[in-house]
Write a sequence for this structure.
DNA sequence: CGGCGCACCTGAGTGC
DNA sequence: TGCACTCAGGTGCGCC
């Protein structure tokens, strides 16, 4: 808990735009000189709640990193946001590819904005509403590949390409299966596999959180045992067949042709 | 409307 | 060594 209880004493930013333009005025007006109450997550967004009811919304995109540094530590290439704290530390948002985003929900609109934001997001995999019945209903009129469905943030929140690949391997389901063909039993399996994969990933990533003070941080998934992702041509850990790679709905897709049929 | 393709960026890796 | 080219973990828009 590095942030809750800390006051943000100054906000600085780079002149580069991220996926959304830097909300300079809003950062100054609503985030600077506020104290952080709590941090939540919705889908892959971080919600940093301030004591005035405003919310700082962060998304790391593909290459975004947050790090806590002493104020005097040298600034790095691709740093885009600096939140100076009242303990002489600085939270820094670094993102080389600039697919990340930084938004502010001003206090007087934050309720409405958060409601709209949440309404546009899919089911959280760890929530009680991630059920076979819900998925069946969402999928019944769609023919898209199940992998694209799992990665669609309006359907399911927070599943990226790696975890979609790994979930479907664990569930033994071919990534291109039309989503309206998935049976009740298969949905149950997908739910269970998805949660297992995410739990393992969080556990593995958790160890990188502890050295997030340093700059030598590796992404957490390097510590997760990947069964299919980026393993084209290598032996399936289940049956020994070579893992195949193909593009499905525009994304690199890895699967075992025997275990996922 | 559903589903795909693509754009938004930089950097790493590969092959010549 | 350098250049040209491909590919990358996310998201949302536009187009058919």
């Amino acid at each position: 808990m590095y942030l809750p209880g800390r006051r943000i004493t100054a906000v600085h930013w780079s002149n580069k735009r991220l996926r959304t333009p830097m909300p300079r005025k809003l950062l100054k007006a609503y985030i600077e000189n506020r104290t952080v109450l709590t941090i939540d997550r919705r889908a892959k967004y971080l919600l940093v709640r301030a004591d005035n009811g405003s919310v700082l919304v962060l998304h790391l995109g593909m290459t975004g990193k947050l790090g806590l540094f002493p104020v005097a530590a040298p600034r790095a290439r691709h740093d885009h946001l600096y939140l100076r704290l009242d303990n002489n530390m600085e939270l820094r948002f670094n993102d080389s590819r600039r697919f990340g985003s930084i938004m502010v929900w001003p206090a007087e609109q934050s309720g409405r904005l958060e409601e709209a934001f949440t309404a546009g997001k899919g089911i959280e995999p760890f929530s009680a509403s991630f059920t076979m019945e819900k998925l069946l209903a969402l999928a019944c009129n769609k023919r898209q590949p199940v992998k694209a469905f799992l990665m669609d943030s309006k359907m399911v929140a927070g599943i990226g390409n790696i975890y979609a690949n790994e979930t479907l391997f664990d569930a033994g389901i071919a990534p291109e299966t039309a989503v309206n063909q998935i049976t009740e039993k298969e949905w149950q399996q997908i739910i269970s596999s998805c949660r297992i994969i995410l739990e393992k990933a969080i556990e593995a990533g958790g160890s990188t959180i502890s050295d997030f003070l340093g700059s030598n941080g590796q992404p957490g998934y390097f510590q997760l045992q990947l069964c299919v992702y980026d393993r084209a041509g290598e032996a399936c850990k289940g049956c020994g067949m070579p893992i195949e790679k193909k593009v499905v709905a525009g994304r690199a897709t890895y699967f075992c042709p025997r275990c996922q049929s």
